[in-house]
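debug: dumping io for the single-chain case to check the tokenizer round-trip. Nothing else runs in this session.
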Amino acid sequence: MTYISSEESGGLDIRISTGHLIAQYTVMTGDMDTATAEAVTVLKGYILGDNSKTTNSPFTKSADQKASEDIAMVEPIISQSNFDGSTTVTFIMPDDYTTLSSLPTPNNKDIVTKILNSEKYAVLTFNGKVTPDIFHNLAQSFVDKLKVNKIHIVSSPELLRYDPEWSIPYLQRNEIRVMIK
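debug: decoded output
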């Protein structure tokens, strides 16, 4: 994830992200860990070739040949618990893809690709294995701190995971971020 700027303000890390393309998948039920695992499996399928890319054939004038394309994995994986009980997982697309039309089309119609504009975030960085309880407790404390500092929150907290689940738990780098004004 690339940030235009990052500053420390009253003990809070405030960042402005660059705009980028993303792929998202939402799981409607289940706890955050189970839903995240399901969504990551679906999104990994997309980046590992469960997609189609229209290519121009050198032998015809039409652009009707379909091929799949592998997409590089970019950190972090973003998980968000939504108010309706669903969980949305977001993969950030590599900078090689500059427009939506440059991205391969997901074969799974429930995967959404879109442009995420540059936004301002308050960020809490921490290490360790994240369970739903740990996430919710840290997120609530973080939101409370933002409110005390009179920072206007415009999104629910998101969990950003930078390391694979199988890495040593105390070394796993994570962030909770909240979009702010």
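debug: round-trip ok. Residues 132-148 form the longest helix (17 residues).
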